[in-house]
Amino acid sequence: MRLTELIGQPKAVNLLQRALAGGRLAHAYLLAGPDGVGKATAARAVAAALLCREEIGSAPCGACPGCLQFASGNHPDFLHIRPDGAVIKIDQVRELKKALAFPPLEARLRVTLLEEVHTMRREAANSLLKLLEEPPPDNLLLLTTDEAEPLLPTIFSRCQVIPFSPLSLEVSAAILLKMHPGLDQEGARTLAGLAGGSPGRTRDLDHAALLQLHRDILTGLLAGHAGEADRVVTALGLAARVAKNEGLETLLDLLRLFFKDTMIAATCSRGQSHDRGPHHLVQILSRARERWNLQELSDSIQTIDFAQQALARNCNRQMVCDVLFLRLLAETPQQQATRTG
Ligand SMILES: [Zn+2]
Question: For 255, what's the count of Cα atoms within 13 Å in the CB-facing half-sphere?
Fold first, then answer.
């Protein structure tokens, strides 16, 4: 992928292209912005351009040995570090330092992509800081972070910061269409709405199954239930499917977003329509506004927060989902009143 093919980040692309074309590279760049908007993709495009053996500026030729090695994931002068579990560990930074002490093997410059540096604890961050303070020659570090508030502000000051922006619904949908060839326009717009401006989040997910499950969850939440037994069966059925889904975390994020969007829609001045995505999502939001009052929406968001915290503590997925959906589908006092007359 070339830098110029990155969609929706003209400012970042411009800054990186100027640095590449002018041959005036800093030792380290920090690509900063929301999750899933193209930071790592841009970093890989920069690496591809630098590891190409043809001198053609900011775009790789795609055919030389350097390009072919990079494309196959085997370039010896490209190092890629991601969080091991939830964090980048001190040992990973120590290993990196050792590797960078040697000159590059084949290219003029070694490129290291260090993703999600905001996950580092203090010890690892301090170790990285030392590396940034005394950068070994012939090395370029590309760091990415999701957080505006860094653990160590000094890391920001040692890097040239390249800002990435959140993406609009249209731009997200265009990116999703490129990412998932099987998706149609309507599906792309829906998925874009669900992904909340972070198409990259959907990368490793079975998007068709995810879309279907998300649709079923909303239907289950908004449906009228024949009685308590019906409600419990629906809740436990959804919980079982969600607990098994590899995109569980994303699903909970999306569900949280749904309740938040409903709250925003409910507090916006009435009659004012705002672009919340495709027509059927707008309809769902308006039904959701009738179903829950502000307090109930806020309670549901809190319920999801509790579930996410429990999952982060490695609690049993099935149990967490059972409790979550039983609570989310619980009868509201308003419904109780309607039922009992
Ligand atoms: Zn090349």
Answer: 32
Query: What is the rounded CA–CA span in Å between residue 38 and residue 8?
Result: 9
Q: Please, where are the H alpha helices in 28-182?
A: 39-51, 65-71, 90-100, 122-133, 153-157, 169-179
What spacing in Å lies between the alpha carbon of 75 and ligand 1's midpoint?
A: 12
Q: Which domains does the chain have, with CATH numbers?
A: 3-163 (3.40.50.300), 204-340 (1.20.272)
In the reported structure, the alpha carbon of residue 59 is separated from the centroid of ligand 1 by a whole-number distance in angstroms of: 9
pLDDT of residue 57: 67
Cα 142 to middle of ligand 1, angstroms: 20
Q: pTM for the full model? A: 0.69
The pLDDT, as a whole number, for residue 128 is 96
Highest mean pLDDT among 92-101, 167-176, 206-215, 245-254: 92-101
Q: How far is CA 114 from CA 24, 39, 89, 125, in A?
A: 21, 11, 12, 12
Span from the CA of 106 to the centroid of ligand 1 (angstroms):
13
327 CA distance to ligand 1 middle (Å): 56
